[in-house]
Design goal:
With 304 residues, this protein is mostly helical. The chain has 3 domains: 43 residues, no CATH class; 127 residues; 84 residues, no CATH class. It contains 12 helices and 2 strands. Strands 1-2 form a two-stranded antiparallel ribbon. Helix 5 packs antiparallel against helix 8. The two termini are 30 Å apart.
Amino acid sequence: MEATGVYWKPCFYALEDRFEVRLCNAHHVKNVPGRKTDTSDAAWLADVIAHGMVRASFVPPVPIRELRDLTRYRKRQHDIRAAEVQRLEKVLQDAGIKLTSVASGVLTMGVLTMSGRNMIDALIAGERDPAVLAEMAIGRMRNKLPGLTEALSGHFGPHHAVTARQILDHVDFLDSRIAVVSEQISQRMVPFTAPVDLLVAIPGISQHSAEVVIAETGGDMSRFPSPAHLASWAGVAPGNHESAGKRRRVGTTNGTGGCDARSSSRPGPRQGPRPATSVPNTVRSQPGVVPTRRPWPLLTASPT
């Protein structure tokens, strides 16, 4: 069966319990250009499978499919939330409120800080005095009161208030939906506690990122012959393009739809020391110095 978007799923799920079904990557079973029909495609697939010319794609078991659907949906919700926060920034800029110019972390990475949220809520409620708005800053932002007072001196009008209110309500709604989905993911991650503990020990891997890796790979590394195969399958390995003895620059390969670095939701800060693969440029440039590399720890624990 050739993988075509999501339309292969109903047929695959209906047939997988009756006999062995192989899902093939369409890129690996291309026929001669200009002679493509559904009938010829079916005959070509039967021919290449009979001769063992194509490998079956990885289709995870049902529990992993459910987990993958939830993690990918959560990522989409995070993307929508980030877009809404960016839209709020445009509204503030249109109103002459340069809040992010003084405190860049107010709307960074789609996260509204408590200080920024209080100021925006006050603007929506009708408060226009910059000094009063600046006094709502808490924590380290209070060190920037003069700059905040100047940045909050804009022309925030009624239509800005209506738009900002709708955006904030939508952000709150998305937060509640994300919390519900995250709770469902946490319940399904109970059998994968050991692999998650291994993943979060890697610097830069948060709990959400570990959940995405488990959902995409299934947590069973025996499916992949080596770490290089896993990296290539996930789409984080460089591609190869060599012709007539010349190698051309190419990007990373197209891997699974949710296991790249951008798929993690709200990635946490770097934890622990820097990884051993991070070697200063001054060390790399020294002759005779070979940087040491730490092997990528595989998830040896399988779900039970």
